[in-house]
Design a protein that fits this description.
43% helix; binds ligand F0G; 354 residues; alpha/beta
Length: 354
């Protein structure tokens, strides 16, 4: 069962909506004690593994909604701009519903796995000599002038689908987490999670809201720096965005929740990326490690007070937005390559250090 079926009473669907699903959602929420140890006493850290969605990222939650509604409204083509994951997801859901998919990407700035996904699902992939922000401007105009439905997160149905992530976290924990940490790129996801938590509270399913902690990459941190970044830079290509579409909504989520949006450097992202893989056993793409890098940095700054004397432990949920296999080049680049020896047991044993 996908997220529409599971949460339809909270979503804008009717009996007539064709449900285009790949059984997305219901992703693992796993405890990560090695990270909690770095935060301080009295905290539990949970990782929402969104890389286990059908196309390997959180985008599938929003895409099942956006494509279902597009098909309901009679569309026969969808379009998106993307740093990679949106295009992979749009291409898959378009394939599933047998409609056309056009994706506009910044040339040379998309992780290999994501490009492979868009291509294999049969999307028309167009790379522009420009960045994500320019690609988004183009697709916005395309969808106004031509009969194609825009499925970036400026499409409100994307936000509706993605808010189901909050519902799953609350259902699993039995309450909202105390802190909710996530990477911020185009800022659709922070908008969606905050909307989801607020709606769950209104319905009486939870009694308080989390503090939202958003993190941007230092070279692509327009919200933190309060200015559009013309040439955003970061190794976390998924969030290499200089002018987020949901800028204001992200600030609202931050301010209404008493949270923050701050930046982490590429070095801090890589450190968290490796820590997650080596100590927690979870391989994510670099952008996803931003949430963990962010809370580890805030812990060092003394943001999380000693909670050991409180009656209740505090939960921190980090959203791990995409799978590590999306961007194998990055893993290979920042690690030692395998040593090559002769096909001889003595040589192998010597090298293995046994
Ligand atoms: N993490 C990953 C892995 C992403 O792909 C994205 C966004 C984000 C975080 C940030 O989420 O944009 O909602 O703030 N990727 C988009 C794309 C831009 O085109 O795939 P956001």
């Amino acid at each position: 069962m996908g997220v529409i079926e599971r949460y339809k009473r909270y979503l804008p669907v009717t009996g007539k909506t064709p449900i285009i699903t790949l059984e997305e959602g219901d992703t693992p929420l796993i405890k990560a004690d090695p990270i909690a140890e770095k935060i301080g006493p009295g905290y539990d850290v949970w990782l929402k593994c969104e890389g286990l969605n059908p196309t390997g990222s959180f985008k599938d939650r929003g895409m099942t909604m956006a494509v279902s509604k597009a098909v309901e409204e009679g569309a026969n083509a969808v379009v998106c701009a993307s740093t990679g994951n949106t295009s992979a997801s749009a291409a898959a859901y378009a394939a599933r519903s047998n409609i056309k998919c056009i994706v506009i990407i910044p040339e040379g700035a998309i992780a290999l796995g994501k490009l492979a996904q868009a291509l294999i699902h049969g999307a028309k992939v167009i790379a522009i000599r420009g960045n994500f922000d320019q690609a988004l401007e183009i697709v916005r105009e395309m969808s106004e002038k031509y009969p194609v439905t825009l499925v970036n997160s400026v499409n409100p149905y994307r936000i509706e689908g993605q808010k189901t992530g909050s519902f799953e976290i609350c259902d699993k924990l039995g309450h909202a987490p105390f802190y909710h940490a996530l990477p911020v790129g185009n800022a659709g996801n922070i908008t969606a999670y905050w909307k989801g938590y607020k709606e769950y509270k209104e319905k009486g399913n939870i009694c308080r809201l989390p503090v939202m902690l958003g993190f941007q990459a230092a070279g692509s941190a327009p919200i933190v720096e309060k200015r559009v970044i013309k040439d955003p830079e970061t190794i976390a290509t998924a969030i290499k965005i200089g002018n987020p579409a949901s800028w204001e909504q992200a600030e609202n989520a931050r301010d209404e929740s008493g949270g923050l949006i701050e930046k982490v450097t590429d070095e801090e992202i890589i450190e968290a990326y490796k820590f997650l893989a080596e100590r927690v056993g979870v391989f994510v793409e670099p952008a996803s490690a931003t949430s963990v890098a962010g809370i580890m940095k805030k812990a060092q700054d003394g943001y999380f007070p000693d909670n050991s004397r409180e009656r209740k432990r505090k939960d921190i949920v980090c959203i791990l937005t995409g799978h590590g296999l999306k961007d194998p080049d990055r893993a290979i680049k920042c690690l030692e390559h395998p040593v090559v020896v002769n096909a001889d047991i003595d040589d192998v044993i010597k090298e293995a250090g046994l």
